[in-house]
Every structure is written in structure tokens, then in C-alpha cells.
Amino acid sequence: MSNIIEIKVPNIGDFDAVEVIEILVNVGDSINVEDSLISVESDKASMEIPAPQAGVVKELLVSLGDNVSEGSAILMLEVGAEAAAPQAQEKLAETTAPTAVPAPAAASYSGNVDVSTEVVVLGSGPGGYTAAFRAADLGKKVVLIERYQSIGGVCLNVGCIPSKALLHTAQVINEAEEFAEIGVAFNKPEIDLDKLRGHKDKVVGKLTGGLKHLAKQRKVKIVQGYGKFTSPNSIEVEAEDGSKQVVGFDNCIIAAGSRVTKLPFIPWDDPRVMDSTDALEIQEVPKRLLVVGGGIIGLEMATVYDALGAKVTVVELSPGLIPGVDRDVVRPLERRIKKKYENIYTNTKVTAIEPIDNGLVCSFEGKDAPEQDTFDRVLVSIGRTPNGKLIDAEKAGVAVNDWGFIEVDKQQRTNVDHIFAIGDVVGQPMLAHKATHEGKVAAQNIAGEKSFFDARTIPSVAYTDPEVAWMGKTEEECKKEGISYHKGAFPWAASGRSLSIGRDEGMTKVLFDDDHKIIGAAIVGTNAGELIAEAVLALELGADVEDIALTIHPHPTLSETFNFAAEMAEGTCTDLYAPKKK
Amino acid sequence: MSKEILVPNIGDFDKVEVIEILVAAGDTIAVEDSLISVESDKASMEIPAPEAGVVKEIKLSLGDMVSEGSLILMLEPSGEATAPVAEAPAKQEAKVESAPVAAKPAPAPAPQAPVKQSPTAKIDEASFSKAYATPSVRKFARELGVDLGQVDGTGRKGRISKDDVQGFVKRALSQPAGGGLGVAPMPEIDFSQWGEIESKPLSKINKLTGQFLHRNWVTIPHVTQFDEADITDMETFRKGMAAEYKEKGIKITPLVFMMKAVVSALKQFPRFNSSLDSSGENLIMKSYFNVGIAIDTPDGLVVPVVQDVDRKSLVDLAVELGEISVKAREKKLKPSDMQGGSITISSLGGIGGTKFTPIVNAPEVAILGVSRSKMQPVWNGKEFEPRLMLPLSLSYDHRVIDGADGARFTSFLSRVLSDTRRLLL
User: Fold this and answer.
1) Per-residue pLDDT of chain A (582 residues; tens, 9 = 90+)
2) Alpha-carbon distance A445 to nearest alpha carbon in chain B (angstroms)
3) Phi first, then psi: what are they for B361, rounded to 5°?
4) Please, which residues bridge with residue B384 across strands?
5) At what angle do helices B403-418 and B254-268 cross, to 10 degrees?
6) What domains can you pick out in chain A, each with its CATH number?
7) Residue B335: other Cβ atoms inside 10 A
8) Facing residues of A57 across strands?
9) Pair A254, A404: CB distance under 8 Å
10) Can you say how many angstroms the Cα of residue A93 is from the centroid of all Cα atoms in its chain?
11) The domain spanning residue B316 has which CATH number?
């Protein structure tokens, strides 16, 4: 039983004869209610037209560049019962729970201990040093083991901090260039890579130096070297010169982090093949750069190299960039970088990389990608792997699962009562702010407090241009989990502040449950990473749509858009025409 | 090096008044010397010195309210004076009849999937994570182990506040174990509609006793076993002795005989000298014989405990009983004087009545009620003989004691009382 209906352009406000700039569905696609069908753009703003009904697309009736108005036919849709089936299947697949991890039998250690302490923290990343400092502040004697010379882990040394130093540079370059359009033209920037690298290193140095000082003030002893368990109460630390010492402990916090995932077929010994750590060293600006992996890290590095003058191609295996976020939020970013970058291939796999003298020949497998192309450098950023299997955790009796994660309870305790684990090594999302929070929970439990990881959401940010930030539930998750929600979205094209900084592609979207409480938010646009914090606070405090709509936000700011999005959901917004749905 | 001397854990007292300061600055004191006296509504107690030394400064004054942890004085400890008498193994450790706790072997986690008892097993994490409470309230709830999913918020739109969490805990604590009984609340009645009335506050003892009695009444399945003991011979002997000791100022009452007789019954039936542990899974068997005596005071009912009755003579007990009743009436009983009983005796013999049903004084499992003895005709096989009969009412916790044992206990008791020579056996 099915019938075919014609989907027309609905009342889209004061738009008339607007251009179709994007067609987001294909014939044969199964679509859900509210899925975007096409994007239209006037000289004022762009908007997406959502599907009024679920079904299967039979025929497209518009093409790119057409001018449409209210009532124009978009496509023919087959609506019927069978269209709903694929979703159910998806759900089934997800319920297959991972099997319990058997705990290994612990080794016993009877040797001497060189350093004996109450708490040892294995790893000095943001989670590790936070845990160490918190434990010390609660009166514990603490040893912090760090493999590298400099403490601070990936975040401070080769992650969050150095990448932000470079991203700011990229932003300045881009803005300077774009200001030519409004009558302020600068000369083409001269880039001194050594100096830029020096600036980045200085930022990192300041922070890691500060950390060493903080450790000293708290009498936290730093033991440098690679630590591995030898028993449930001892870790052997091997320094770079091969000398070994044993740290004995009452309690341990494993904060061993994660490392770059390395695909086996990639020629890592070629210096033109980079991981994110190498990329941050900006040895050179390649003419053509291939970024393998369209997640946060890959897109951030692409932003940097693009600004510095490289022609960037991004390859992503899944159907879209930054998987896990609603497509409407990623789309403004996608649109912008599609114009700026050489190529973006989604649904595409890199099957081989072959180094030759004048480049790296990469083979692709995907609908839009060429079979082969040659790049000057390749950045591989396809994800990170937890370090659970690299620390001989089994000798302490700590269970590590097949992926290398260590499972913990809400108090960060592993299957061994006196050993805790935090950060990347315990699971996704692998984010510094999650690790620091967990680090405090673990330290507090060791100090005898009853502390739990009770945060309701962990926000994520991609520091691309525009930035993408989100927290709580996404629409995709709500649909998958059967959570009923309503949303309010505010396009920044109607934000005075956004237009005045020369940008109009942003959007703030807020999701509410049936009690009108906020359950999720996503923001794309300049400074989205800063703006998302307010939504996180709102969610933790249990704010509802009214609370947000009634909170006065300063004008004109980007933060207003959060308030406006709530007003959109409520039907009280006056900065846009939003007829009430019910 | 002066040292702070603080009020130690003084039982369920909180904010008690300092009624006496027994030392002064400059005094040299020994371990266990009394420093101050404090008094609550229920009893008074003296706080002893934890170590020897010289008092440097008194840090409180008469009338101050103190609790555990309040600063009493600064003491300059004298090095040599300490050597505290090796604390005698005060009491034989209560034996716990339970599966022996698996001795923790050198850390060698079981090689199978870790099944760990989470300390928050009772918290429904799903509903906890949805409760309308801010992060600070969630932290507070975690500290108290409260399942936020069960707390009703009184804030705007049902938000849970810290007060709501506290209120939840208070209600949970005042409820008998096992939750509410689901009875309808007492209706509020305006008694003045029927005539003149006066509202008098209950004394603190009344209130506390009321709480305990209510808890015990609703949580313990009570059975009361009645019996009679022929105490004709006992009384003849006692009266003789009483006359003899009267001159020494010692009052030999029937109660001391009863205490002795009860102890011999406890030895015969050890289950009567036990307590259920809080899980209700194990019975704690006691090897000490302490008898609680319910005493009626102008302020209400108190139950001081006489220690080690098995090791004391009738005369010792008579002396101690005399002291205790004076202390009770003068409100000088310490909390420790009212703890650690094996069984309680409630004697109304001096007042009257034929039988009554006493309420078990938990965590004990039995209580003996004694009513007024009466001369009664007793058939001795040939004829009716006038005998002095003492009515006994034994209430017990039916979870621990079977009906047959209850009857055996009272008949043993009456045999002992009717021929007190058996006490020697």
C-alpha cells in the first residue's frame, strides 16, 4: 500500500522566486519527516526546506539554479508503510551489547620498591595532572608518572593548545583576506613558518612550565619514564636512558590516554605522511595536502593548512563530515569549505598510498573521487586508539577490553578496587574536559569522599571556520532512541552581530523534551565553542524553554541566538517570522 | 606543646549543656580523670581525660552547649604519665555466627568477570540521571547515598533542593525499617470543643521512649507468654535476709532474685541472650549477662543496665540496684549505663495488676514483665494450699524465639523462683 504525492515549497516567509542552491536528496532515498530536501538562497539568507512527510523519493522536479516560490513542486514522494522498516532494523543492531570483559589474574610482585607513595597517577595529561593535583590538595602523597620530558600530555603538547595557536593564525589570515570584499584590503601575508612554530612552542612552553611549577607547589613528585604495572601495587618506570625504578602505591589512577590510530597500509616512514602531531610541526606548507579523515582533528588541521596556502582535499569514509552531529549543523561548514578547498570526498575510502619522488600517490574508492591522485603531503587523522593495552594492566588484575579501553564505574573505579582510570583510556568522547572532570572524581574517591561522575553531558567543539559545537542529544539520536522532542532554531542571517562581523552562515539550534526542558543544543558559527557553554549550564541546571527565553541576553551579541532559538521554539520570537505550529 | 582536648563521641547526645567544670588551669590530671559534666534532658555524664598532663587553659564555661568535637581545654601532656593500662579485653568480643568473611588473599582478582557490589547498588542510575536537580544537589545526594529519582522536589517546577534531599533522609530515618505501614494518619482533632483542655509538651524522655517503643512495636512480631511462679519459699527467705541487711541500709527486693533467676534461664536458653544483626541474616549470640531494669521516673521511663549479673551476688545486686534507681531519678545516668543489655525486666509488682504485655526492648529479643504476687489456693494433690503466686509475662521476638521455647523459658524460670536453691546449680 503506497501512494505518490507531490511535495511543494511551503510558505517560506517573505521569499519569492529564490534560487535552489543545493539539492540534498536523490531519487530512491528514504527520507524522514523534517529531513532537509533542498536549500534555497535569496540575497538575504539561505534556508532549507524540510520534508513534510516520510517516504521514498521517486522523482526530483527541481534542479540547481531554478527559482522557486511558495507552491513550486520539489519532488514526488512515495509514502507508505514500508518506508519505516529500515529504522527498526537499525535499532536491533544497536542492542547487541558488548560482552563482559573477563578480568585477568594479577601478578604478584615481591621485589623492592624505590619510591613508595599513597597515590600514583600514570600519565600527566589534563586528566592525569588534575587528578594528581586534586589528590595532593586533599592531603595525599602523590607521584605523577610521565613518559615524556614535558608534562601536560597530548592536549598541551601536541593537541588542543598548539592547534588553537595555529587556528587563531588561520582565522586572522582568512579575515584579512575576506575584508577586501568590504573595502579593506591587506597585502598577501608573508608567512615565516619558523617564527610561527616558535610562537606555538612558546604558548605550549608557558603552560607546561606552569604545570611543573604547580606540581612543585603541591609537592607532587614527577617520575619521568614509561610506566608499566608489575603487580596490583607497583609500577616499573623505565627512563629514556634505560634505567628503571619501581613505584609502589596504595591507590593508582590510570590516565594513560590514547594515541593516533595508524592504518597498516600507510607508509609511515615517509616524512611526507603526517599524523596530527607531525602536522602541528608545520615543516612546510605543501602545495597539495590530502587530509584522510573528516572528523574534528582532520578538519582543524585542514583549516590551518588552507589558510597557510595549501590546496586541501579531505576524504571521509562516512557519508558526512564530523559524524555524530546533525547534518543541518555541519552544512554551513561544509558549504564554506567546499568553496575554499580543492575537493571534499565523502563516502570515500583511501585504499593505498604510494610514495614516489614527486609526491604521494593515493588511491581512492568512492563515487565522486578519482581513482588516483598525487599529493605533496598526506595527513592521516582517522581517530585515536586508547593506550589500555600498553601498560601491562593485566599484571595489576585490571581488565582491558578488546579495543584497549578500561571499563570503570561511575566513581571511575576499575574492576580492581584501589585502581581507578580516567580520560581517553576509559572511553569516548576522548576530550580533555571529560578527563579533568573524571580525574577529580577519582582523586576525591581515593581521598575518601563519595564522588560520582554525574555530569549529564560533555560538550564537543570543532574549531573549524565556522566553528561547530554541540552538547546533549542531537536530533539524530532523539530519532534513533525514540525520544520525543521539539526544537527551536535561529539562523544567524537574522543576527545583527553575525552580519556585522561579515558572516551569515551560522545557526543555533536547541532541542527540548516534552516537559520543555533542554535536552540538546548545537551551534555552528563564529565562536560556537564559546557559546555552547551556556547551553551546557542550562542543561545541567535543568532549564526549560521558558527559562532560556526569559533570560535577558545582551544585544547585539552572538549569545543572543541561544535566547532567540528558545523563543523560536516557544513561538515568541520577534526577530524572525515564526508562525506557531500548534 | 599544648594539645587540644575535645569532647569525644558521647553517644546520641548532641548539644548538651556543661553543668560542671571539674578541673582548673594548672591542675595536674591523670588519664580518665573527669574534666567536665554535661547534661541532656535524659541523663548526665562526665567526660574523662584521654591523657595525663597539666591543664593550660579551660576553653568553655558553665552553661555552654557542647557536642562531639567541641574544644574543652588545652592540655600539656606529661610524657611519662601516659602508659595507659593495657585496655583489658573489655568484653569478650561478640561472636558473629555468620559465614566467615572470606579472608582477603593477596590481591589476586578472580579470573572471571568481575561482579562487584557497588556501594550505590540501591540507586536507580537511570532515574537519578533524570532527576531535576543541579550538580551541587546531585553531589550532596551522592554523599548521602540518596536516590534522587525518589525525591520529590519542592522548588519551582518541582526542582529538588538540598533541603528536599535532607528531608528525604530524615523521613527515611524516622520510618521503621521496611518502609511505611500505609496506615491512615491520625485525624487532627480539636478537643476543646468538648471542654477545657491544656496542651503539655512531652518530656524528651517521653518522646524518645515513644519513638523506640513505636518502632519496636511495629517491627517486632511479639508473642507474650504468661506463667506463674510459686515464690512462697523465696519470699520467706528474702524477708529474713531483708531484715538482716536493713540495718546495713541495703534493701533486698524480689527483683534481685528475679535478675538472678533470669540469668540462669538465659544460660539454659542462649537464644534469649541474642540480637539479630541489622541485615536480619545473622543472630549475634552474647556471652555476657547484662540485665536491663525498667525504672519509672517522674520524667518517664528509663532502662539502666546492670552489667555481669552472673558474677554478682544478690547483695551486690541489691546495692547496685539501689544506686541505679537514685541515679535514674536524679537524671544522672550516662548513655553507657543504658546500653548493652541481654534482656530487660519490667516489674510492676509494687503497684498492682495481674498480667500485662511488655514491649521488647530491641535489639534485645525478650522482656520479662512481673506483676503483683498474690496468695492463691494451689492444689498440692490432696488439698488446696495457700501459696504466694507471682504472675510472669514474657514477651519475645518471634523471629528469634519459637513459642515452645517461650513456654520452656517461663516454666524454667518459675521452677527456679519457686526453689531458689536451683540458682546454685
Assistant:
1) 457 888 888 776 666 778 888 888 888 888 888 888 888 877 666 777 888 888 888 888 888 888 888 888 888 888 864 444 444 344 333 334 444 566 777 776 666 788 999 999 999 999 999 999 999 999 999 999 999 999 999 999 999 999 999 999 999 999 999 999 989 999 999 999 999 999 999 999 999 999 999 999 999 999 999 999 999 999 999 999 999 999 999 999 999 999 999 888 999 999 999 999 999 999 999 999 999 999 999 999 999 999 999 999 999 999 999 999 999 999 999 999 999 999 999 999 999 999 999 999 999 999 899 999 999 999 999 999 999 999 999 999 999 999 999 999 999 999 999 999 999 999 999 999 999 999 999 999 999 999 999 999 999 999 999 999 999 999 999 999 999 999 999 999 999 999 999 899 999 999 999 999 999 999 999 999 999 999 999 999 999 999 999 999 999 999 999 999 999 999 888 888 866 554
2) 11
3) -90, 80
4) B379
5) 130
6) 2-83 (2.40.50.100), 115-259+386-446 (3.50.50.60), 273-382 (3.50.50.60), 466-570 (3.30.390.30)
7) 14
8) A77
9) no
10) 24
11) 3.30.559.10
Angstrom distances, CA of residue B174 to CA of A107, B134, B154, B184: 48, 26, 20, 17
Domain at B162, CATH number = 4.10.320.10
Torsional sign, CA A29, A34, A35, A40: positive
Statement to judge: residues B309 and B395 lie in one domain: yes
The position carrying cell 517546577 is B157
Residue B192 located in a structural domain: no
Residues B249 and B391 reside in one and the same domain: yes
Active-site residue set of A: 555
Q: Which residue of B has its CA nearest to A395?
A: B108
Count Cβ atoms below 10 Å from residue A265 Cβ, excluding itself: 10
Distance separating alpha carbons of residues A552 and A65, to the nearest angstrom = 41
Q: Which three three-digit cell numbers place residue A226? A: 614509561
Give the whole-angstrom CA distance, residue A69 versus residue B148: 53
Task: Give contacts of A234 with chain B, Cβ < 8 Å.
Answer: none
Angle between helices A193-217 and A126-137 (to 10 degrees): 20
Element (H, E) at A93: helix A85-95
Which among A416, A452, A456 is the nearest to B142, CB-wise? A452
Can you give the residue range of the structural domain that contains B15?
A: 3-77
Test the B interface: residue of A454, A516, A536, A540 with most B CBs within 10 Å: A454
The structural domain count of chain B equals 3
